Amino acid sequence: MNVIVAVDKNWAIGKDNRMMWSIPADMKFFRETTKGNIVIMGRKTLESFPQGQPLKNRVNIVITRKKDYKVKGAVIVHSVEEAVKEAKKYEGELFVIGGESIYRAMLAYCDTAYVTKIDHAFDADTYFPNLDEDKEWQMTKISEEQTCFDLEYYFTVYERVR
Question: How many folded domains does the chain comprise?
Fold first, then answer.
């Protein structure tokens, strides 16, 4: 299982249920990496998408505590365990795509993390666990420095150390 995320230099991922940056190359990487695969997210992450609609060309599994929650084009589950079980019914790689509580709950199931690291500190209220401080994770790849206007960023891959 994989996780895919963009973080700032403090491992922040958002504020007020929104990303704090827009980097077209990162969005393209996310689209190309997850397309044709399975994505697991929380309800608030789904609701942050345009019109609150599931991502096209993917199996969208949404975890929520709301028992009567329904969204056309998404599979609704009510626990991490139920999400993992549901995902096994589909072909393709599995990507955890947020938000903070889903990342924290599902990181233990993941072996690979695709992390876009933005070299800037934003004012944020949600965070991803700092893999640089976690002995179970090791960065195995880092791209050349990329830029988008005044933001510098890197595409990195972390792998769980066994």
Answer: 1
- According to DSSP, the β-strands at 12-14 and 74-77 are unpaired
Domain CATH code at residue 86: 3.40.430.10
Of 34, 141, 155, which Cα lies nearest the Cα of 45? 34
Q: Which domain holds residue 13?
A: 2-160
Question: Model confidence over 56-112: pLDDT tens digits?
Answer: 999 999 999 999 999 999 999 999 999 999 999 999 999 999 999 999 999 999 999
Q: Which alpha helices (H) appear in the chain, and where do they start and end?
A: 24-34, 43-48, 80-87, 100-106
The count of other CB atoms within 10 Å of the CB of residue 82 is 14
